[in-house]
């Protein structure tokens, strides 16, 4: 009997690698030293459900990420932003743009709404929130702020909240509480990011507008700038992902991504064994990332580890993959990848694990397996240790994904 749906303690991953394939590309752009680059990223959301409603993602989105283009910009307008089929914010506009001018270089993200309403419990009008992350004269800084034209709690106007201080908490009868002007910034050795949110709704009591226990951020902005570096680092790692046609059946497990690296520290994300309903049982999964950006060298390493996967009577042993990318100030760069799979069985029959990139094995009536699926672009590499095309389910299961690249 398969374990019940849910997470359990991470199973130990023992790797008896039957196949270990590695590939490396060396990329050079001449001997001249490359100029350091800045990294820009940011977003503006109309609304974003932070807990409790998995099917209600960000709305009225403007965003971009991991770019060296100081002219990058995105805008979005929408009449309303809905949560739980309720019109929470109306006449919403979002804007995120990078800049490079006399004030420095960085990113500004802004979101506005004509009004934000939760039934007759809360009414905010003329809402604007903005945040900026900036690098100027060797220094990192940020600003963030929110303002309102009008604030009413129930039927009572509260003029003292038109320009609230940072992280102002206010009780709202019939809803729970709100936090106005939630702002902050985080500085690292690689750069700085800042955030500003006009209002965060915390539904702590039962009401007809937002389910109890759900938090909703309204007009949510973020801006990020990196220090000058030889390159930005990008990539991702996850254990498994399942798709039926174009529909995602199960999102990436233990997903990790990056734009600025980890300041040279190893970051690990793990989940225990789990079931992808009607598709597969997955053993313990963990991923790692490690990297840094700097004026002399930028690099990133991702790895993915899966204890095993079962799809029907198909059993796959321990699966691993890795991807790396780097670039130095003299213009030299490279990428590499590897993958390994311990074993493949259908019932009591063992199948060979094929070597080489993009090798395939067809198991009639069961699945098509693609081993060490590698995709390359300039200074970027992506590897899926195993791709399982399940015939009976018309489903594709990706196992052991790692990707890494540098942008300059």
Q: Helix fraction?
A: under 10%
Average pLDDT number: 86
- Overall number of strands: 32
- What's the end-to-end separation, in Å? 51 Å
Describe the largest sheet. 7 strands, antiparallel
The shape is flat
Classification by helices and strands: mainly beta
> How many H/I helical runs?
0
Q: Could you name the ranges where pLDDT drops below 50 across 5 or more consecutive residues?
A: 1-33
Strand content: over 45%
In total, the number of domains comes to 2
Rg (C-alpha, Å): 24 Å
Keywords: Signal
Question: How is the secondary structure organized here?
Answer:
Blueprint: E1 21-28, E2 40-51, E3 62-67, E4 73-83, E5 86-101, E6 104-118, E7 122-136, E8 139-147, E9 150-153, E10 156-157, E11 168-172, E12 176-187, E13 191-203, E14 215-226, E15 232-244, E16 247-250, E17 256-258, E18 267-271, E19 274-276, E20 280-282, E21 285-292, E22 297-306, E23 309-311, E24 314-316, E25 319-328, E26 332-341, E27 344-346, E28 349-351, E29 359-363, E30 367-377, E31 380-390, E32 395-407
């Amino acid at each position: 009997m398969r374990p019940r749906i849910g997470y359990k303690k991470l199973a130990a991953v023992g790797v008896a690698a039957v196949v270990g394939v590695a590939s490396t590309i060396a990329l050079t752009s001449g001997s001249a030293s490359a100029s350091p680059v800045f990294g820009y990223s940011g977003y503006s959301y109309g609304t974003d459900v932070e807990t409790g409603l998995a099917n209600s993602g960000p709305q009225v989105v403007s965003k971009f990420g991991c770019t060296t283009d100081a002219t990058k910009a995105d805008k979005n307008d929408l009449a309303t932003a809905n949560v739980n089929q309720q019109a929470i914010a109306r006449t919403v506009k979002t804007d995120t743009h990078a800049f490079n001018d006399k004030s420095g270089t960085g990113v500004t993200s802004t979101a506005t709404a004509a009004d934000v309403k939760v039934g007759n419990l809360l009414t905010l009008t003329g809402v604007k929130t903005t945040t900026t992350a900036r690098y100027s004269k060797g220094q990192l800084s940020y600003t963030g702020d929110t303002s309102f034209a009008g604030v009413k709690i129930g039927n009572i106007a509260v003029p003292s909240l038109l320009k609230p201080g940072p992280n102002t908490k206010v009780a709202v009868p019939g809803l729970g509480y709100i936090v106005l002007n939630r702002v902050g910034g985080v500085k690292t050795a690689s750069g700085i990011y800042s955030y500003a949110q006009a209002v965060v709704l915390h539904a702590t009591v039962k009401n007809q507008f937002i389910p109890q226990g759900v938090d909703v951020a309204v007009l949510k902005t973020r801006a990020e700038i990196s220090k000058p570096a030889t390159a930005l680092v990008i990539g991702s790692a996850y254990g498994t992902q399942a798709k039926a046609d174009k529909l995602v059946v199960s999102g990436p497990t233990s997903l990790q991504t990056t734009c600025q690296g980890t300041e040279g520290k190893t970051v690990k994300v793990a989940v225990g064994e789990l079931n992808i309903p009607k598709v597969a049982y997955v053993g313990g999964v963990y991923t790692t990332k490690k990297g840094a950006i700097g004026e002399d060298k930028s690099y990133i390493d991702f790895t993915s580890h899966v204890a095993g996967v079962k799809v029907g009577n198909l059993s796959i042993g321990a699966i691993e993959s890795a991807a790396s990318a780097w670039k130095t100030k003299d213009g030299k760069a490279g990428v590499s990848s590897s993958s390994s799979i311990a074993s493949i069985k259908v019932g009591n029959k063992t199948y060979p694990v094929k070597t080489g990139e993009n090798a395939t094995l067809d198991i009639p009536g069961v699945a098509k397996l693609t081993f060490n699926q590698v995709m390359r672009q300039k200074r970027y590499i992506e590897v899926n240790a195993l791709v399982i095309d399940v015939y009976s389910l018309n489903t594709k299961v990706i196992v052991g994904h790692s990707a890494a690249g540098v942008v300059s």
